[in-house]
Amino acid sequence: MGSGGSTRKAYEVQDDNAIKRSLEIDQYLDEESNKEQPRRVLLLGTGNSGKTTMLKQFKAQFAPKPTEEQVKACREIISQNIIHGLILLVEFLEGTNKKHLLKSETLGLKDVLRNQVLAAGLTIWDEDASGTMYSKMVRIVWNDPEVQRTERLSHTISDNEYQTIYFMKRLDTIVEPDYLPSEQDMLRMRSKTKGLHVVELEIPDNPKLEVIDVGGQQNERKKWIHVFDNVDCVVFIFSLGDIDKRLLEDNTGSRYDDAVECFREIVSNPQFRNTGFIVLMNKVDMLRRMLDEDRDLMHRRFPDYPGRLGHYRDALIYLQNEFQTIYAENEEAEGAIVKQIRPAVAFYPSTATDTENALKIIKGVKDSVFRNSINDIL
Known about the structure:
- The chain has helices at 2-34, 51-62, 68-94, 104-118, 134-142, 145-148, 159-169, 171-174, 183-188, 255-267, 284-293, 297-301, 312-334, 336-341, 355-377, and strands at residues 39-45, 196-201, 209-214, 233-239, 276-282, 346-350.
- By secondary structure, the chain is α/β, with parallel strands linked by helices.
- Strand 2 and strand 3 (209-214) form a beta hairpin.
């Protein structure tokens, strides 16, 4: 009997030790999980697609808030956006049959803003030698009835020019000496991405995401190859507002065709064979406006388009199918094995300045990264 009792005690001691060891292992795994390397998300797309604006949305939700100094630094960028955008609006009108309706004062001030303000790196809060604030000149140009008319021509002006209209409507606030940009102002300001921008996002109860934004202009794309290794998810962005626009680089090729060829090149890269893909069909608000103002746009741009006149959803489905077909054709070319292991591509209509929409996209990115992690384990 005594021997049996001592055996039970020995088992109890062993059980206690096993439980203790198990808890220690769990604690170790939790600690290692917290040290887990960030998942890499590559943000790709052509110039003016809205990549950088989308990244700003991600940062606003899941990265440390900008310091006051960083916010103040945005003032100068917004000033440049306003002045440059106004110049472009006036030059757009000069190229139409309405040029004679522009006031001579508007044309003269356009040259002043270009040659004396932009060229010298001045802002709308500065003043000229006579003490006249450049913000006053900006207001005079904007108040020209023909310049204001451009708001009704969103299907023919560029997105940068259209964003200028947003800032002009806030001019009374912006010209104040102590003006600090709002979150929406910072989302809408424009600056070209040069080189690589890397942002680490901390999402509660999820691995960190390291989002890499690379310049989308044609001369920047040669740098993309340096960030293709160990990518968990590619987010490709193209602008729905570009379906009838010319390339910024040479003003001859089509921006939309450039985006299609860029996507074709990316999905065929062997380094992305096991990588999740998300395609953001960005600037849906612009597509809606364009179709409202030009109902025959899709039929004129795409001769095989089967959809209804001015119908937004038909247009969206047609454009999504074009990218889906490219993805599927690449799978077929790679063979049956690649087709089995390659994740399905996910599509999201998006507006980069819409915070709620950006949160849905982040969820899609998380899901894509998680699926790829499970596939690695299996």
